[in-house]
Amino acid sequence: MTLIWRGKNGDYLAFRVEPRLITVLTFAVRLQDDFSGQRPLGRVEVSLAGLSRKPWQNLSGYYLWTDLDRTETYTVTIEAEWYLPSKETVRPTDLEKKLPVRKIILKPNPLYPFPAAATLLRGVVKQNDQPVGQATVEVTASTASTITDAQGEFVLYFKEDHSNKVEIVIKKGATVKKIEKEIMEGKTTSAGVINLT
Predict the structure, then answer these.
(1) pLDDT at 16 (0 to 100)
(2) Residue 193 and residue 53: Cα distance in Å, rounded?
(3) Which of 1, 28, 43, 100 could form a disulfide with 95 if both were Cys (CB 3.0 to 4.6 A apart)?
(4) pLDDT by residue (tens digit) across 12-45?
(5) What is the pTM of this model?
(6) What percent of the chain stands above pLDDT 70?
(7) C-alpha count within 13 angstroms, C-beta hemisphere, residue 177
(8) CB within 8 A of 160, min separation 6: which ones?
(9) Dihedral (CA of 155, 83, 174, 166) sign
(10) Which domains does the chain possess?
């Protein structure tokens, strides 16, 4: 926008004034590492399904989208090198209006750089000698749970003390299998290949 101003000596001067840019936060996403409770490690890509516009990230690690329709429902897609893929549905109208933030917890995948003293249980799920991806793997009477990757591999990590026998439940569709394994605190235990039959 150009403003014209007449000086004292009668001359006309032109000034270029840039309009003020105002954006409105639609919603933000805060990612949290399920193992450490901290910000995620490594490369993380966050996007909205069906929209090419990328979010911008502030210094606190929040991913922010501005000037979107608050009445719409959005699918946040997360791809990361050390975490399982994640898709979360977000409705801005369900969030607090003054602070529209959604926390998303990311579960480490088998490639995650766990510390040496972590208590882990690793294994592979197969059916008819083929890897089974997207199978849920849970420990009975524990918060430990995960999903197998495309190669059928999984890693269960225990944030609480564990040095005993645990029951593991593997589910894929209507198929359910239970096994027992002895794990030790601060060690990695192998469950080997688990066949779903």
Answers:
(1) 57
(2) 42
(3) 100
(4) 545 555 666 678 899 999 999 999 999 999 999 9
(5) 0.82
(6) 88
(7) 14
(8) 142, 143
(9) positive
(10) 25-106 (2.60.40.1120), 119-195 (2.60.40.10)
